[in-house]
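Would you mind writing out a protein's amino acid sequence and the numbers that encode its backbone to help me picture the idea?
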Amino acid sequence: MISYRLGVDDLADMRFACSPLLEAATSLWALQEPSAHVLHLPWIRRTQALIADWPDRELLLALVAPEVGWLPDFLTPRPDSPLPDVADELSRVRATPPSRAVSDIIGAYDGRPLPSRLASLCEQPRRLRDQLSDLLAAYWEVAVEPHWRRMQSVLEADMVYRARLLARDGAAAVLTGLDPSAVWSDGVLRLRVSSYVLDYDVAVEGRGFWLVPTLFAKHAISPVGANEPPTVAYPARGIGTLWETTVEAGPEALGELIGRARAGLLAALDQPASTLELARRRGVSPSAISQQLATLTANGLVSKARAGRVVLYARTELGDQLVGRRL
């Protein structure tokens, strides 16, 4: 059980972030166990083919400890801004004290024997840190960066949803809705961790509290460390839309009212999305989507909100009612 005790000031300072390096590291879970990540099978097949001949492939996959599935904490630095840049995150990984890199590797394996190559690198801490940093950077470029825009759209849509929930219903609604494994009561957030033995109880006490949506976690996770801001990563909403490429036809009756293209776009906004993400999913140009969104927004069917550098669009209550009438 992981327990975080949050005071009133901690709840008021609760923040959201998404992390490109966290997605790169946790995506290794999907490569290790495809059957548990079936929504990501299109990405898994492409990525497995891309790294099949990598000389460091086995070392990369060894970063996921067997049985418990832990990852070394230093590879996923805590966020320090809502939308960190991957280059900044990699710089922080490369600045990790070599001794900590070794201890994080050993800790991830939780007493289990290390694979021979990983064990050999642990005898050279600086080389271990530098080689794993370079390996993660190369993996990011091949496996995640080509898809990052669409991944980021899903993550930012989740952040906007949770921020609205926080403003409307308060912190308790957000914390209890993170995941079935999360329980909030009497000022304590408890995360049940059934796959390994861990008893960690800590007061946040003004150190900051980050909530991070992620695409590859099957349940809420939390790296632990007494000297770092408490962070909870949880499964993002809308993962099922991440790899879809089909184009929906607009509902017939609604299409007669507002036009087939705008009707199809309105129906596609079950989750907040950016112009570029909608253009990809609809198979049209971003400028065409922008024109349709402008019309829908002007008529009160769609609202927009900014998440960092991206504007996300969502159906209004009136838009929901129109789409709901044809279901």
Q: What stands out?
A: The first helix runs from residue 8 to 12. Confidence is low (pLDDT under 50) at residues 246-250.
